[in-house]
Amino acid sequence: MRCIMETKIKKDMFRNWFDRYVAGFTAGKDTALDVVTNIRLKKDHSDRVVQEILWMADQLGLDNESRDLAAVMALFHDIGRFAQYARYRTFVDHRSENHAELGVKILQQHQVLDCLPADQADLICRVISYHNRAALPDDDTEECLFYARLLRDADKLDIWRVLIDHYQHRNQEDNPAVELGLADTSDISDQVYDRVVNKDIVNARHVKNLNDFKLLQIGWVFDINFTPALQQVKDRGYIDAICRTLPPSDRRTRIKQVVADWLDKKLRS
Ligand SMILES: [Fe+2]
Known about the structure:
By secondary structure, the chain is an all-alpha fold. It has helices spanning about 10-25, 35-60, 65-75, 80-90, 100-110, 120-130, 140-170, 175-180, 190-195, 210-220, 225-235, 240-245, 250-269. It comes from Desulfotignum phosphitoxidans DSM 13687.
């Protein structure tokens, strides 16, 4: 692939466009508070996913060009979230539209990637469009799938942080958009529990309440692609932190144990 991201000018151009585009959603004096909060949430998330992906790129020894390309993917991966929230006041894709596809449309409409060779712009769009899929397609190039795996890991590393922070402070600052409006009941659905103890990712269709949603997030660990990301999950104590926000039960104890054992085994291998 040709070297195109070598200049600081291009990186600054993307960053400037991103900042201006995002600022546009909260520019009005009378912008509703939930819009300001959620635009800010996704902006900060995007910024941190850039940091996560750069850290992962360094851990994996990527060259500068690949590193820069990964950073652009991370910066723009949730660009559809801003219009999604402003238009629909939700982050639930099936109640609004697919935010990854919407993001690609926005990048195209604003001709953001037109300064890049077509193959590179196309690669960025494909990776973004795959970032929220239940599973990656098996018919794309190894290069594309590599970046998609990298982005999905970097994204999860920060979403865990956002969610844990939210669960720990939800009594003080409620934000229903983060919990997708799910009921905070005391149970865990059987299908969801079974998936996690069988070390499998949870199907979003089976999520019935907030505890199920937390188990779905615990189950993301089984979908992590790269060892440095997995090590971060352990070092940052993400799984324990989510478990602590579940009501005490035998199921909670078992989930914590199963995931901790799986993580240790995986990191040893
Ligand atoms: Fe994201």
